Amino acid sequence: MLSEKNDENAVQKVIENEQLVNRLRRIGFGILIVGLLSAIAVFIFASTANNADGNVVAYENIGGVSYPVDASSSKGYQYNVERVGGKSTLLAVELDDWFASLWHGKKLSYTLAFLSICSALGCFLLARLFSLPPHEDEVDNQDWKG
Hints:
Blueprint: H1 2-45, E1 56-62, E2 65-70, H2 75-85, H3 87-101, H4 105-131, H5 136-145
Antiparallel strand pairs: 1-2
Helix pairs in contact: 1-4, 2-3
């Protein structure tokens, strides 16, 4: 009687495990599809202008093409930041500017694609880990506890 109940519990756990694995795989595919489609849409409709903040202080003309010069990329701004806070502050400001630039324009599409691929891979990895059979040591320990 006791062994039949243990067998039923084991079968129930296997079924629940398979449902969890399938659910994780579907979630991973959903994240991947929605994320990549969103990244493609942002890439197509994003403006090519680099000036998302409106901090243009000047324009440089190179080869007949005008390029905006952002206030944070000017030598005077960098000198003042370094003078006030040191090189570490200048590095922190540059890192902050880079991170903020990931959420505008075409770079946003790359960010969306990267995040959706990483999230989907995480779901697939979890599904793979849950689908693996337990090691022999774990099975022996479960029998001993049970």
